[in-house]
Amino acid sequence: AIERLSTDVLDNLRSTCALCTEKRRCLEDMMEHLNAPGWEGYCPNSGTIRAFVLTAIAGTCRTSSAPLGDQ
Predict the structure, then answer these.
(1) Using an 8 Å Cβ cutoff, are 16 and 44 in contact?
(2) Cα-Cα-Cα-Cα dihedral sign, residues 3, 11, 26, 44
């Protein structure tokens, strides 16, 4: 899924992570739980990641053969 991101978006995510001052906190949170509470408050990539997840969910819903109410 992430490989379908544009090169520019992926490069931006990588650059932002590389410059982030919260790497240790991020690593500790992700080691504890991949969707640890609070990460969106300190992650400078949170908006981009949130948009990617919502886009992926929307794509899954569109490709599902289940009726809309069953998803």
Answers:
(1) yes
(2) negative
pTM of the model: 0.66
- CA–CA gap between residue 18 and residue 20 (Å, rounded): 6
Dihedral sign of CA atoms 36, 3, 70, 62 in order: positive
pLDDT one-digit tens code per residue, 26-42? 999 989 888 888 999 99
- Which among 29, 8, 26 has a CA at the least distance from the CA of 17? 26
For the chain, state the CA radius of gyration.
Answer: 15
Q: Distance between CA 56 and CA 44 in Å, rounded?
A: 20
Give CA–CA dist 23/43, Å, rounded. 9
Could you tell me the CA-to-CA distances from 71 to 35, 56, 57 in Å, in that order?
Answer: 21, 14, 11
